Amino acid sequence: MTTETLIIARLGSGGDGIADTPAGPVYVPFTLPGETVAVARVKNHGTVMSMSVASPERITPACVHFGPDGKNGTCGGCTLQHAGDALYHDFKRSLVVNALKSKGLTPDVAPLVTAAPGQRRRVTFTARKTEKGMLLGFNQAGSHHIVSIEHCPIASDGIVSRLDAIRQVAAAIATSAEPFRVTVLETLTGLDLAFEGVKKVGTRERHAVTESVLALRGIARVTSDGEILIEPMKPEIEFGGVRVSPPSGGFTQATKPAEEAMADLVLAALGKAKRVADLFAGSGTFALRIARQAKVHAVEGEEKAIKALDHAARNTQGLKPVTIERRDLFRRPLMASELKVYDAVVFDPPRAGAEDQCKELARSGVKTIVAVSCNPISLARDLAILTAAGYRIRLVTPIDQFLWSAHVEAVAVLEK
């Protein structure tokens, strides 16, 4: 380890400050461009020891758990609370712009659709039983140390106000001192708690969870590795006015405002399309909204998610016909011959993207394609496949829903 003074030149894709040195770039967390810092350096990683020049874009973090000066440790949930809005928003947009440029794509990229504190309805905590009680929080960046939290500025009030209740249920289900995870989803009917990694949940723990939940209010369901332990109320969320009961631990957009912004862009792009395929449809985030204006064929590989979509569609009046298909689109993408019956296609894959599916779309005659992505790198690769086949990118819109992190969503609209 060496100590040296560095000038931060720019932000890296992970949100760390980067200093250029003769030996190559050095990554320094919690720093901003233009800052001069003394760091303890190990290879290409620097830890701030002191700062002699601070950026005018530096602001006071909103959370006491953030950064090297956090009172209870460095929470690993956020990386950019110290950056002012202008710098932060430009950084988020640049993640999309630079990824597209890496593939030779220079379409119009709209300003970032911004996020605000208190919007996260889905949060994943780490928990562990200790001699002093139940530890609930986030893993410190780069370690297994759990930073206990009493407040979280990104999470909704419906989650933050129930942290003690979540701890009580976690204490009831814990079988050892080993850490485990709990994904908390705030739904219209109460909190949905999905525990993962709790070993050997037995009769005693099941009874304890039941007693805890019945004594508390506002908890709709508790599951352990997908098994329902208690469900006082069926958890429900709403997709464009259609109520859906999502599967335990299933994918949902982390914030309602970001979901609505993406849905608005998708619906506007589809225009008067009469037949639409929604690929990687999940529990119906887009399909059930699209069904207000067009026939939809929803394709999803996860059985519980597609069943939730189907149940919601069958029990909602006023929708156009919705057909479903359970299909692993990574192994068996919809072929060009199957796609020819659709006026438009929407796809929203996991972070890996939809490379094989885009190769089939590229061979199809579909007029309008809307790509929704949580990974600018895989999005750029997929869009390059489509543009090489004659599609034009009309607009790309970056959307922030993971506030103060280095993650960004994007919606791209293409036409043949």
UniProtKB/TrEMBL annotation:
Chain residues that bind S-adenosyl-L-methionine: 253, 280, 300, 348
Pfam families: tRNA_U5-meth_tr (PF05958)
InterPro entries assigned to the protein according to its UniProt record, in alphabetical order: MeTrfase_TrmA_AS, NA-bd_OB-fold, SAM-dependent_MTases_sf, U5_MeTrfase_fam
Organism: Shinella sumterensis
Name the record gives this protein: Class I SAM-dependent RNA methyltransferase
Active site: 374
Keyword Transferase assigned: yes
MF GO annotations: 4 iron, 4 sulfur cluster binding; rRNA (uridine-C5-)-methyltransferase activity
Family: Belongs to the class I-like SAM-binding methyltransferase superfamily. RNA M5U methyltransferase family.
EC number: 2.1.1.-
UniProt superkingdom: Bacteria
Keyword Magnesium found: no
SUPFAM superfamilies documented for this protein: Nucleic acid-binding proteins, S-adenosyl-L-methionine-dependent methyltransferases
A GO biological-process term: rRNA base methylation
Keywords for this protein: 4Fe-4S, Iron, Iron-sulfur, Metal-binding, Methyltransferase, S-adenosyl-L-methionine, Transferase
